[in-house]
Design goal:
The chain is an alpha/beta fold and about 250 residues long. The chain has a single domain (about 1-35, about 50-235), classed as Rossmann fold (3-Layer(aba) Sandwich). Helices cover about 30% and strands about 20% of the residues. The chain has helices spanning about 10-30, 45-50, 80-85, 110-120, 160-165, 185-190, 205-215; strands at about 1-5, 35-40, 60-65, 65-70, 100, 125-130, 150-155, 180-185, 195-200, 230-235. The strands form 2 sheets. Strands 1-10-9-6-2-3-5 form a 7-stranded parallel sheet, sandwiched between helices. Helix 1 crosses helix 2 (about 45-50). The longest helix has 23 residues, at about 10-30. The model has no long low-confidence stretch (mean pLDDT about 95).
């Protein structure tokens, strides 16, 4: 794992987007098409704002996203499909080759199978992800399943995860935060050729510190990123505040 620390979250976003775009362009030059994963949440605002400005032929890029709440309509302010449509797809000069959104209003198991079949046909070149306050990757809350080979799974959201969603302002009350989601699995995330992990803010510092320097354990899902040889962890100074070692 490579670590890149920026003085501000705005600079973090610029560096992470530039690094990810460079990887995508390299794949496009070699193969003519690329496949990526995009994350959501407040931690991705700056990165996505910069990524859409990058000189990439998005019309040759197929996109997947990490997770969606079970039962969540796209019209809801907290919908991750809504988030990515507004903050990514609608900001591009040309639409991507495809964006395979998760639709979780119907049968979650059937949707896991549908997206799982699609992503198996599109090996991921670059994954843009974040880390949760509880150390989760996507919605794989602790203890995360490190073993399942299913690309997408239905998961229960723990209270720490739900508190983060409420704290970021996506829901009017804690009780309004859904208790289930469809999530990309840990193994599927790690199957990406390269991972760009953007993590700003002091509220993530403890999770970052444990992920980088603590035990590799399902109790801190993000610790598994240390097993991926092409991961770059982009931090701002507040998020790096618990690290005892600096690059």
């Amino acid at each position: 794992m490579r670590i890149d620390i920026s003085p501000t979250k705005q600079e973090l976003g610029r560096r992470a987007a530039a690094a990810g775009a460079e990887l995508i362009r390299a794949v496009l030059s070699q193969r003519g098409k690329a496949n990526i994963i995009l994350a959501t949440g407040a931690s991705q605002f700056e990165m996505l704002g910069e990524l859409v400005k990058q000189p990439v032929d998005w019309s040759m890029v197929t996109c997947f996203h990490l997770d969606e709440y079970v039962g969540m309509p796209m019209s809801h302010p907290a919908s991750f499909r809504k988030y990515l449509k507004e903050r990514f797809v609608d900001q591009l000069a040309k639409p991507p080759a495809a964006f395979h959104f998760l639709g979780a209003e119907g049968n979650p198991a059937a949707e896991c199978r549908r997206l799982g079949a699609l992503i198996k046909q599109h090996p991921i070149d670059v994954a843009f992800i974040g880390i949760g306050e509880n150390g989760h990757l996507a919605f794989n809350d602790p203890p995360a399943d490190f073993e399942t080979r299913e690309p997408y799974i239905t998961v229960e959201l723990d209270d720490a995860c739900r508190q983060q969603q409420f704290g970021e302002g996506w829901f009017p009350t804690f009780d309004a935060v859904p208790k289930q989601a469809i999530s990309m699995s840990i193994r599927q995330i790690l199957a990406s050729q390269a991972i760009i992990c953007s993590v700003p803010d002091a509220r993530k510092a403890e999770a970052v510190g444990k992920a980088v320097e603590g035990p590799l354990t399902p109790q801190l899902p993000a610790s598994i990123l240390r097993n991926h040889g092409a991961t770059t962890l982009f931090l701002d100074e507040p998020a790096a505040g618990k690290l005892t070692w600096r690059p």
